Amino acid sequence: MKFKLKIWRQKNAKAEGRFEIFYIDDISPDTSFLEMLDILNNNLISNGKEPIAFDHDCREGICGMCSLYINGRAHGPDDDITTCQLHMRKFKDGDVITVEPWRSAAFPVIKDLVVNRNAFDQILQAGGFISVNTGGVPDGNTIPIAKDDAEEAMDASACIGCGACVATCKNGSAMLFVAARVSALAKLPQGRVEAAKRAKAMIAKMDELGFGSCTNTQACQAECPKGISIEHIARLNREFLCAKFKD
Amino acid sequence: MSLSGLFLLIFLVVHVSINLLALLSREAYEAACAFMDTNIFVQIMVPVLALGFIVHIICSIFVTLKNQTARPVKYLVPNKAAASSWASKNMFVLGVIVLGFLGLHFFHFWSKMQLQHILGHDGENAYDLLVALFSQWYFCILYIVWVIALYFHISHGFWSAFQSIGANNSKWLPRLQLIAKIYAIIITIAFISIPVYFFFGLNNCIWIKQIALLIFD
């Protein structure tokens, strides 16, 4: 397969970036998107050029490291997957593919397609944890938890913190990310205790870091690689309001 | 934002219910107008309603400005996520359209009726105003465009308000969205029925009056 790639290049965080055009051919339809970029980088290196910087780690869709805004969609043109799980067979031979980094005030570009997602860590540090030691697996299993609650908590825990929700949201809001953490912990007895405090602290941090506000467009859940639903945002709003009333 | 929105949604129901009385008869409509002018509860609610509008508008400006700063560099290829409805992405623009026409609405009706009463004058007859305004085709079209913008605004705003106060989950999301659509359609049709009724002169149509009498007598 042959492709024309339009890729964002930016030397460093302060430099001004621009789109650069690359041509690549002889790509197997079974190549993953990141492998295609590897091949492109190999070509660039052998021609003595600077390779394109992009984030990646586990390459099996569980680490949340790969990003990329491909042809107007976070993680590219397929549902419920990360970029490493996207294959070139999803494109047509000869396609023009535009690759952009996540765009958000809270995720500054470091280089080329790599953005700094440290803001997510800061939100987690503000309240996305349990303050006491809750023991190991046997201790956890001594507390019976209703199956529905366990499942909902598990669905929310599927969040890999990739930032696709922020990248997709027209307001650059991190509500789905925050909601997934708040929901996952609030549905379990160990996390329930601090639920109100957590919701307030994480939302305050999110606002402080320059993320936008949720206007319920539902774009985040459509692009979330883990299919996390906006019902968790409703729970976050509920926890937040209850916490504010208790103050 | 959501609470003021829900309040304004209730106001719309009251407003359109009174409008619909104009379809019934001149007497019913004038009686309702007189009731709205004199009832003490209504008099108390008028400033509350104005406050509801102001809170809603100020919140929306605040949220929109903040959200504008969240993505300083725009994407080259815009997001095509199918799940977001057109209305949800254009709530502010729709709100501005609704507000713009609201100014006109105030000029046409409120300034000639309620404002005159506040100033101690008699004001114009409400029913005559309706007949005069809706006999002009361009005003009818303007009015209908306005109500359609309102339709899109409330079809998203309705369920979105519940989501924002946390009164939602995966079971209720589709239900609320359906109720929102039904509510918006009913409100829209009810509002649009007024200019259509007067433009086509159905107020002078005898058999419609007789049907109305049969139903309500």
Summed up:
The complex is a heterodimer of chains A (247) and B (217). Chain A is built from 10 helices and 7 strands.
Helix proportion of residues of chain B, in percent? over 70%
Structural class of chain A: alpha+beta
Please report the number of helical segments of chain A: 10
Global Rg of chain A: 20 Å
Strand tally of chain A, please?
7
Strand content of chain A: 5-15%
- N to C succession of SSEs of chain A: EEHEEEEEHHHHHHHHH
Return the string of H and E elements of chain B.
Answer: HHHHHHHHHH
Largest sheet of chain A: 5 strands, mixed
What integer is the average pLDDT of chain B? 88
Strand content of chain B: under 5%
CATH H-level name of the largest domain in chain A... which superfamily?
Alpha-helical ferredoxin
CATH class label of the largest domain in chain A: Mainly Alpha
Oligomeric state of the chains in view: heterodimer
Annotation field: number of helices of chain B: 10
**Count the strands of chain B?**
0
CATH architecture of the largest domain in chain A: Orthogonal Bundle
User: How does the overall form of chain B come out from the CA principal axes?
Assistant: globular
Largest sheet of chain B: none
Q: For the terminal residues of chain B, how far apart are their CA atoms?
A: 42 Å
